[in-house]
Amino acid sequence: MSQSHHTPVYTRAQELPATLAKRLVILDGAMGTMIQRFKLGEAQYRGDGYAGADGAGERFKDFAYDVKGNNELLSITRPDVIRDIHEKYLAAGADLIETNTFGATTIAQEDYHMADLAYEMNLKSAQLARAACDKYSTPKHKRYVAGALGPTPKTASISPDVNDPAARNITFEQLREAYLQQTLALIEGGADVILVETIFDTLNAKAALFAVDEAFEQTGQLLPIMISGTVTDASGRILSGQTVTAFWHSVRHANPLSVGLNCALGATLMRPYVQELAKAAPDTFISCYPNAGLPNPMSDTGFDETPEITSRLVHEFAAEGLVNIVGGCCGTTPDHIGAIADAVRTTATRKLFYSAEA
After folding, report:
1. Beta strands 325-326 and 285-291: pairing type?
2. DSSP letter string over 255-305?
3. Who has the most CB within 10 Å: 157, 213, 260, 268?
């Protein structure tokens, strides 16, 4: 790891722990679900016809590969779409909004032949979220940007070949370098918090956390870290095989602001694992942002839970004293986040407990 002579500088989010100790904090909902509502085609993803994207329409007009579905590119080609989504979540009551960077690593962008744009995607995404938060912040209600580091399509501890368990298609060092570039761009763009999320391979997450620490050393910025794993099925384990408790013990060295669970499951199925995590990490804030139930192609959002159902279930988590940060993942919308915010408005946040050894 490189050495730095910087004195760490605590950023805008230094008051966030005090806020979490006082009340539940609301995270935003799904980005992809909202982007789908715009029904963008290949031309729109390239920025065709959008005058406000610094000539992006011309820039990608003759790009040799299809880019439809590359949601992170929209921060460059259609910033109006991303800005609109951020502002809808903030208007619904979100305190924390995630940058549009779930797949903005060089590794993930290789699928679109756009690895060279990863830094720019992260920078622009963070700037868009920063501007939206600044617009909606007041002295009494500050809004925060969570710089999102998502999983990559390649995993360090799981073989891509069922016939060769020892095979790997990515190294720890390659992951570290990709996450370092992403984190540096998010910090430059104005992120308040770094969120390592949707973790299904703990070794990937450890590479991300190593890179985040390196970015803090290089920049002299010291941002709070949020960590969120993904239990993939009823086994109660993340995809690389760890239980929720084992996962926590693998990442707790990062001293995160929060640890939690997101994606893969709706709130009902996620509940026992949130309970387990809250017990395993009594001295750390707990986050939970489930999907809107199970996939349902007949639904407007592609998932089966209405805002009323999701908010009721999340409120039950809060009333049980399990969580400090709540929001939504796949299938959730500003209506879901608004309903969650209303449902937990008067509910007490989870209290932290510190052991005698701590």
Report:
1. parallel
2. --SEEEEEEEEEHHHHHHHHHHHHHH-TTSEEEEEEESSSB-TTSSSSBS-
3. 260
Query: For residue 163, what are the contacts with CB-CB under 8 A and spacing of at least 6?
Result: none
Q: What is the pLDDT of residue 153?
A: 85
- pLDDT of the residue at 51: 72
Q: Taking a C-beta distance cutoff of 8 angstroms, is the pair 242, 280 a contact?
A: no
- What are the φ and ψ backbone dihedral angles of 280, each rounded to 5 degrees? -75, -30
User: Is the overall model pTM greater than 0.90, yes or no?
Assistant: yes
**Close Cβ partners of 104 (under 8 Å, ≥ 6 residues apart):** 72, 118, 121, 122, 125, 150, 182
Residue 1 has a pLDDT of 41
The residues near 40 (Cβ < 8 Å, ≥ 6 apart) are 68, 74, 78, 81
Beta-carbon contacts of residue 273 (< 8 Å; ≥ 6 apart): 231, 236, 244, 261, 265
Write the pLDDT tens digit of every residue in 16-52: 999 999 999 999 999 999 999 999 999 999 998 787 6
Q: Is 206 helix (H, G, I), strand (E, B) or coil?
A: helix
Alpha carbons 170 and 174: distance in angstroms, whole number: 7
Using the predicted structure, report yes or no on whether residue 271 has a pLDDT greater than 50.
yes
Give the residue among 231, 243, 278 at the shortest CA–CA distance from 258. Answer: 278
Residues written for the chain: 358
